[in-house]
């Protein structure tokens, strides 16, 4: 068995950052200096990231996060891997750490009751319980909890509008879940704001549930936002629920359409993947900007001119020596 010397870290933390642009620069410089790659969002309301690196570099990164009192409570979901899960490092400032259209809500003030994986497992099958998937269509079509209620949304920012369809569930226990827990912080808070009284969330999300509770009754695979695209969760009673977008056979192999103008996230079996050259349709297959398909269906995101070194201000030797005295 190949030794896995790398780790993939999934995390978030809601915490007030007074100077997010300045912190973004400091955070970015640390990642560059320690060969951490991935996608990190810095916002006034906190941080959210998925990164990869050698085990020792990831340990340094987690220590760096925890050393800051604002982020001391950050929990990391840690997965082993045989290589980097990203090719570059992107640290960006955005208004929210997850785009929700719910910027007025602060999960540190009020949110759903957190359930650890074993608590969620015990509660999810009770008669007065509704399991609510707050993720987008392409995510829950690939994998979801058995008997979960899913919403027809293309982006999480559509969630508030869809809650209007859930009025009849206000007398139920509502258990929300997502990939790593971050969407549930705002989703459960919004449900409480809308008059739902008994609201819970799966702490650590699907990923932690798979690690700590064996993933029982999670059917299919979990979509992740790195070059693995989809990961196994269920070690107890796994089941494939998605079908190939092209031929209709059962397949939990996920790809992004090779046409960058489309970039649809779809299940596609290996045979159809090669046959379609990673495209979701003949039209996309013939698109002049179609990307080269390498069998994975993962493509590095367009950087839009983003330079990981641009704007980094390293302290001068004079400032360094002054700081150490």
Automatic annotation (TrEMBL):
It catalyses: uridine(34) in tRNA + AH2 + O2 = 5-hydroxyuridine(34) in tRNA + A + H2O. InterPro entries: Rhodanese-like_dom, Rhodanese-like_dom_sf, Rhodanese_C, TrhO, TRHO_N. The keyword Oxidoreductase applies. Residues 297-325 are annotated as: Disordered. Its EC number is 1.14.-.-. The keyword Oxidoreductase applies. SUPFAM superfamilies: Rhodanese/Cell cycle control phosphatase (SSF52821). This is tRNA uridine(34) hydroxylase. The gene is trhO.
